[in-house]
């Protein structure tokens, strides 16, 4: 649900958002797969909760948003990788593997703001509670600070575009917190263009680095390619291929190769078969295959 103050005839630039999210499943995918990079970005223990309850106020080129929210809705987001199922393509495992942050399936209380610098440049920064599953004591349980700089060239939808993002974060936990303090950096590069065959193409690279001693995952690198309309008879279908490599401390690096095809069955209805090959799952020598299937409905 969303309520826009200007459209309601009250004041400009204000908006309230409310989101309820629930999940019901069976089994434990994380335990069953043993992967550092979870094969499904939707898997979680069963839950039903208010996932977002925020107020945003725009002040010309600047904005401020406060409330219960998912940090990954706005920070460390790779749009080109949106169809891929593996969680590493959604947010760097150097963040999720080393800090208990406010992201799926546990949003947290936070505030962030940003400013449009012009020329395709923007900057945003925020502060979230640490250990969000507790939802008690808020910042007394610790806090995560994060900042990101974005630069886009050629944002015209009909022409080529390039986007670069660079971010840094630090999480401080209270003495009775669930983990040690941590910090790190991350970066994203995205490119989109239309080929001579009129197909829409996109590519991306990601990296994360978190060198602090207590961290489990020191480095991450990923990348991939997306093409829309690979088959001339099916211009709305999308094929995305990605590779992700996470390096845990004292163990072998885990590498995931994933391919997902988004098949448009009807207007607003998509079927997404997915196949992943994991080398050294959980940092242990070996290989495994993971297959998935999603039915996606959107308005």
UniProtKB/TrEMBL annotation:
User: What GO CC terms are in its UniProt record?
Assistant: membrane
User: GO MF terms on file?
Assistant: porin activity
Q: Name one GO biological process term.
A: carbohydrate transport
Could you say which protein family the record assigns here?
A: Belongs to the OprB family.
Stated name of the protein: Carbohydrate-selective porin OprB
> What does the organism's lineage look like at the top?
Bacteria, Pseudomonadati, Pseudomonadota, Betaproteobacteria, Burkholderiales
């Amino acid at each position: 649900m969303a309520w826009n103050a200007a459209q309601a005839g009250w004041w400009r630039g204000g908006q309230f958002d409310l989101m309820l999210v629930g999940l019901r499943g069976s089994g434990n995918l994380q335990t069953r797969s043993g992967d550092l990079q979870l094969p499904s970005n939707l898997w979680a223990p069963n839950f039903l909760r208010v996932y977002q309850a925020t107020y945003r106020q725009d002040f010309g080129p600047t904005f401020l948003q406060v409330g219960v929210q998912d940090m990954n809705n706005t920070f460390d987001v790779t749009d080109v990788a949106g169809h891929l199922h593996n969680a590493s393509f959604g947010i760097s495992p150097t963040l999720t593997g080393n800090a208990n942050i406010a992201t799926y399936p546990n949003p947290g209380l936070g505030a962030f703001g940003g400013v449009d610098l012009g020329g395709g440049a923007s900057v945003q920064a925020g502060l979230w509670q640490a250990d969000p599953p507790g939802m008690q004591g808020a910042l007394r349980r610790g806090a995560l600070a994060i900042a990101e700089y974005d630069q886009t060239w050629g944002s015209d939808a009909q022409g080529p575009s390039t986007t670069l993002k660079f971010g840094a974060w630090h999480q401080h936990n209270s003495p009775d917190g669930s983990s040690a303090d941590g910090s790190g950096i991350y970066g994203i590069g995205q490119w989109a263009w239309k080929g001579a065959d009129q197909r829409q193409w996109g590519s991306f690279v990601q990296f994360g680095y978190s060198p602090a001693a207590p961290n489990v995952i020191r480095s991450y690198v990923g990348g991939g390619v997306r093409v829309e309309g690979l088959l001339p008879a099916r211009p709305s279908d999308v094929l995305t291929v990605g590779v992700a490599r996470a390096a845990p401390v004292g163990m072998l690096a885990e590498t995931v190769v994933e391919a997902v095809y988004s098949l448009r069955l009807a207007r607003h209805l998509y079927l997404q078969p997915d196949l992943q090959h994991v080398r050294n799952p959980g940092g242990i020598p070996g290989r495994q295959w993971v297959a998935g299937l999603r039915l996606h409905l959107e308005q």
